Amino acid sequence: MTPELHGHLDLMLLAVLKDGPLHGYALITELARRSDQAFQVPEGSVYPALQRLERRGYVQSQWSDSGRRRRTYALTAVGQRQLATGTRDWWQFSARLNCVLGVTA
Q1: pTM of the entire predicted model
Q2: Contact between residue 51 and residue 11 where contact means Cβ atoms under 8 Å apart
Q3: Is the backbone of residue 20 left (phi > 0), alpha (psi -120 to 50) or beta?
Q4: b/e per residue, 61-70, with b = 16+ CB within 10 A?
Q5: In this predicted structure, what is the pLDDT of residue 6?
Q6: Backbone angles phi, psi at 74, to 5 degrees
Q7: Among residues 70, 75, 46, which one has the least CA distance to residue 58?
Q8: CA-based diameter of the chain, in Å?
Q9: pLDDT, tens digit, for every residue of 43-97?
Q10: Pairing outcome for strands 22-23 and 59-66
Q11: What are phi and psi of 26, to 5 degrees?
Q12: Which of 18, 39, 51, 102 could anchor a disulfide with 35, C-beta 3.0 to 4.6 Å?
């Protein structure tokens, strides 16, 4: 996983799941698509993150049998609140960092 993703993968996964349930590979593909292929996240990072999010109650999983048996993940109400909090915190952090760096919009 690229250094810039460290610590942000959970929030990114929650953001993608906001649009609806997906299986792991579809999440990986969607992260790459949304980042214009900049974030190529390996399965070895995504699946442990999904398990961590599930333990925290942010996502729930179930097996789906649409042609091929896959575990799909969906955002929970607790996960939606965490996404809102994480998004707000990210915007506050990035605004402060921009001030330190002297970056103007």
Answers
A1: 0.87
A2: no
A3: left
A4: beeeeeeeeb
A5: 65
A6: -130, 145
A7: 75
A8: 52
A9: 999 999 999 999 999 999 999 877 788 899 999 999 999 999 999 999 999 999 9
A10: unpaired
A11: -65, -35
A12: 39
